[in-house]
Design goal:
The chain is of the alpha/beta class. It has 12 helices and 12 strands. The strands form 2 sheets. It has a 10-stranded mixed beta sheet. The protein has a two-stranded antiparallel sheet with strand order 5-6. Helix 1 packs across helix 2, helix 4 packs across helix 5 and helix 6 packs parallel to helix 9. It starts with 8 loop residues before the first helix and ends with a helix.
Length: 345
């Protein structure tokens, strides 16, 4: 069977030709799937009945099943737990800002990165998601929006390391930004990485105009590899050089994500080390109040986070403190998935 939702338009045209249908049917099907968010062929009223039956048999549309939704009483954030066809569980988060809806989606089932402060890595890596499984998270949540709203921003920052699944991520971006589809601006898509140097370089070469966010979390190689095992394979100097290449080829400034961890990376000296690292780079620092994930690490106090921000700002570093959303619903990556598994045993 053909995974039709994950086909780019040229691939869909080829499929339509293979099943002996006129080429213009591809545009109709693509519009139904990606612009109108319709997965039931019987609803595609401008397709003849014979074609609808053929598509149902040869190319059924699979969308993730919602297993659980948690809604925040504090800020309206929604955490979705999805089950895929093979029983794997993934998470997505819907956030409501003044500018509209933003969605954080997963790119893998499980994660191999082993970061000490993240719940996504518990249980390890299982498999990459497909294009349709990434799209399905968005389309399913769009269908669930009670106000008929539109997703304006996408963050690929959920479970998994997206740059280890570029064979899926790249066509996903091309489909979701297609004018014939959901048509989100590439500039409103952020890809977060732990620092996979070959992936950063390949993404730079694509020049897709998406925002690259580096999960930095430490300004020295020694501390970073304590927190993030991937730093042993990709040293900080190499990661920063690849980020420089991304900026040179795309003109898009890098966002550096920095989770504030009490007593680990939140001292004045840590701030000064961060300034030395990025002072002459076109960048933005996003300080993240750490979500507690049941591990020993604790978040820095709000006062400490603000003080850290002030040190950076005095050195003309572009810096913001990320608004913390979904704390009352375990908004951090991997938390809901892990809890569901634990309670289902």
């Amino acid at each position: 069977m053909t995974d039709i939702l994950g086909l780019e338009f040229e691939g869909l045209k080829a499929f339509v030709s293979e099943i002996n249908e006129p080429s213009y049917r591809a545009k109709q099907i693509y519009t139904w799937l990606h612009k109108r968010n319709v997965s039931d062929y019987d609803t595609m009223t401008d397709l003849p009945e014979g074609l609808r039956k053929k598509l149902t048999e040869l190319a059924p549309v699979f969308v993730p099943e919602i297993k659980q939704i948690r809604s925040s009483n504090q800020d309206g954030t929604k955490k979705y737990l999805f089950e895929l066809n093979d029983g794997q569980l993934i998470e997505s988060v819907l956030m409501h800002y003044k500018y509209g809806y933003s969605i954080c989606i997963s790119s893998q089932a499980g994660c191999a990165m082993g970061c000490s402060f993240c719940a996504s890595t518990v249980g390890g890596f299982i498999r990459n998601l497909s294009v349709s499984e990434m799209l399905g998270q968005i389309y399913r949540i769009v269908s669930d929006l009670e106000d008929g709203g539109r997703i304006s921003h996408i963050v690929i920052m959920g479970v998994g390391e997206p740059l280890l699944n570029l064979e899926t991520v790249l066509p996903f971006i091309r489909i979701i930004t297609s004018e014939s589809g959901y048509n989100i601006s590439a500039r409103n898509i952020t890809i977060s990485t732990c620092g996979i140097v070959p992936g950063i370089k390949r993404l730079a070469a694509e020049q897709l105009q998406v925002t690259l966010a580096l999960s930095l979390h430490a300004a020295t190689q020694e501390l970073r590899q304590r927190l993030m095992p991937v730093a042993k394979k990709y040293p900080l100097e190499d990661v920063m050089n690849s980020c420089d290449e991304y900026f040179r080829l795309t003109g898009r400034r890098i966002t550096y994500e920095y989770a504030m961890i009490r007593g680990i990376n939140d001292s004045d000296e840590d701030a000064r080390a961060l300034i030395r690292l990025i002072k002459n780079r076109n960048s933005h620092v996003n300080l993240i109040p750490l979500n507690q994930t049941g591990k020993d690490l604790m978040p820095s106090s709000p006062d400490k986070v603000r003080h850290f921000q002030e040190i950076l700002a005095k050195s003309k570093i572009n810096v913001t403190i990320r608004r913390s959303l979904g704390n009352d619903i375990d908004g951090a990556c991997g938390q809901l998935r892990r809890q569901y598994k634990d309670t289902s045993r």
